[in-house]
Design brief:
This protein has 14 helices and 7 strands. The chain is mostly helical. The chain folds into 2 domains: 219 residues, HUPs (Rossmann fold), CATH 3.40.50; 82 residues, Tyrosyl-Transfer RNA Synthetase, CATH 1.10.240.10. The protein has a 3-stranded parallel sheet. Helix 1 links the parallel strand 1 and strand 2. Helix 3 crosses helix 13, helix 4 crosses helix 8 and helix 8 crosses helix 9. The structure holds tryptophan and iron/sulfur cluster. The site of tryptophan has 14 residues, from strand 1 and helix 8.
Length: 341
């Protein structure tokens, strides 16, 4: 039996940070061995919001291209293997736009208006005049997934509502047109570690909060960001007893220095460890672990032809899969074929 199909996408926010790496990419890298994977950079979705400042959007397209390419570089540097999965840019597969249009005809407005993520985005990005495209965000996402007949979607909890709408849409299409064209997609919820921001253990690392460490940062910038990480505010001197829970540095020892983490706790709690040294040790371990990824990243950044070939090849494979799906869709909907009317 062939491998089951996995699809997932990420918005082109530029170089990835450690939250993207450990929260999503590491998981994708594991999945590529067991599933037939399609991973794409969703440049169309980036245009659903106005953007501004660092964030790309329809009012701020200046970095859209650059961000998309940076992200592709990071994906490959982090271990996605173009020989195992299709890596491409969403908008290179026009069939997805066609499917989005057809899905938009059968997406009840109420589903979109009730979508909790829509309300969060409008509030979160302070969007005064939400666009038609933003309201249709989940319909476009459903087209992303279903154009490739994605059976599983590895995403975080925050995307569950969108995947549920994808299921509803697949079901609605299949029953409306009397054919099982689409699979009923499932979220692949895996144990995904929560990566804190450098500013607080209970905040998520994110591009928009600026509390991140990027793969594109060099070792000195990484060490500097570790130096300003939030620690136990009551621990000022080395011999003060500390509370590792709630300390961001401690949390990161868990990612990069697992073996020594119990020792870190013990010494911190007993006042045998100072924060300055604790941070130095973490920066060292972090830079060691990230070095191979950063080396590959630099190599790829210096070889634009290689990245272009990877994206072209990925888009080609994706397009072939999407074209086959669209042929079935057009037939199910009785759209007139170009030849043989
Ligand atoms: N909405 C997703 C996010 O913000 C990105 C996305 C777009 C996506 N299309 C997708 C994720 C298809 C999974 C499958 O993270
Ligand atoms: Fe955090 Fe380490 Fe300082 Fe303890 S010693 S508060 S774990 S930085």
């Amino acid at each position: 039996m062939g491998k089951r199909r996995v699809t997932s996408g990420m918005r082109p926010t530029g170089s990835m940070h450690l939250g993207n790496l450990h929260g999503a990419l590491d998981n994708w890298v594991r999945l590529q061995n067991d599933y037939d994977c399609f991973f794409f950079i969703v440049d169309w979705h980036a245009l659903t919001t106005p953007g501004g400042g660092d964030a790309v959007g329809y009012e701020n397209v200046g970095k859209l291209r650059e961000n998309a390419v940076e992200m592709a570089i990071d994906w490959v540097a982090a271990g996605l293997d173009p020989g195992k999965c299709a890596i491409f840019i969403q908008s290179h597969v026009k069939e997805v736009a066609e499917l989005h249009l057809l899905f938009s005809m059968i997406t009840p407005l109420g589903w979109l208006e009730r979508n909790p993520t829509y309300k969060e985005m409008v509030l979160g990005y302070k969007i005064e005049h939400p666009s038609y495209g933003l309201l249709g965000y989940p319909t476009l996402q459903a087209a992303d997934i279903l154009a490739y007949k994605g059976e599983f979607v590895p995403v975080g909890k925050d995307q569950e509502a969108h995947v549920n709408m994808t299921r509803d849409l697949a079901q609605r299409f299949n029953s409306m047109f009397g054919r099982e064209v689409f699979p009923i997609t499932e979220v692949l919820l895996t144990e995904i570690p929560k990566v804190p921001g450098i500013d607080a253990a209970d905040k998520k690392m994110s591009k928009s909060s600026g509390n991140y460490i990027a793969l594109a940062h060099d070792e000195a910038a990484t060490a500097e960001r570790v130096r300003i990480m939030f620690t136990d505010p009551a621990k000022i001197r080395k011999n003060d007893t500390g509370h590792p829970d709630g300390c961001v540095v401690y949390a990161f020892h868990g990612f990069y220095n697992k073996a020594e983490q119990p020792l870190v706790r013990d010494e911190c709690e007993k006042g045998l460890r100072g924060c300055v040294d604790c941070k130095k040790r973490l920066a060292e371990r972090m830079n060691e672990a990230l070095r191979p990824i950063r080396d590959r990243r630099r190599e790829l950044a210096g070889n634009p032809d290689r990245i272009r070939d990877i994206l072209l090849d990925g888009a080609g494979r994706a397009r072939a899969a999407a074209r086959a799906t669209l042929d079935e869709v057009r037939e199910a909907m009785n759209l007139p074929p170009e030849a043989g009317i």
